[in-house]
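Quick note —
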Amino acid sequence: MSLSNNTNFHPSTFLLLGIPGMEAIHPWLSVPFCLVYLSALLGNVSILFIIRTDSNLHEPMYFFLCMLFVADLTISTTAMPKILSIFWFHDRKIYFEACLVQVFLIHSLCSMASGFILAMAFDRYVAICNPLRHSTILTHRVIRNWGMAIVFRGALLFSPQPFMLHWLPYCRTNVIPHTYCEFMALIKLACSETRIYRIYSLTAAFLTGGLDFILILCSYVVILYSVFRLPSKSAQLKTLGTCGSHVCVILVAYTPAFFSFLTHRFGHQVAPHIHIFVANVYLLVPPVVNPMIYGIRTKRIRERFLQVLTSHKF
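Predicted structure written out below.
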């Protein structure tokens, strides 16, 4: 459906295609997508309940973890209902304003999730490099202020996106070859100069995920330096073991994120369905994998979870 440049500066609706080239198997794809989303809901809510009700888990790492889980769950909830409606009912239409809201929520919440992962890295840095001052540095007030600063950063950096997209004229088409609304996907539909918009997108991405990732790497360089100065091999392994869950979270979050970011801007040879599939993995996998990582690797959470299951059983 093409839109005339003379009569339409922006469409009233967009059409989301889903995963291009895989339309025939959309109903089958909906099964794992739905199961993953339900698993994410169950896992995140369970871990949040356990941390909320167990005072032994009221520590900085778990407070930041709760913030991360809330952000992850909100991201997947922002996208998944529409994705499932495309797969199940071929309901591809999304209103222009709803699309802009989805763009803002997904991008701002992804930056918040990145910030919470950085905060968890700082917690590991203080716990390993300055353990005697851990409780005095990461007080409840500091944790609350840090959480608010991360939320404010995400909202501030990405709040211009809906306005920028609203000002653009869309005279090519209103069809988006994606499962959800994304800033760069809409930029490609515009018929005006978008160089400034692309520079803004790169800058915002660097100031959030890029900068966070660099700071996380720096914190782990210092952590590794401190760990390898410990006198015994067992002490080194035990200390590194406290970082294992967080390292897994970093890999789960940043690997698909960087792949999606790079292919969207530079990977013109990558098949569209591969890029869009990875973009969906970025939204859906962290919310379901992160609770599993901490539920399996954290002894206190695992014991509390088994305790709750046993009490309900009896």
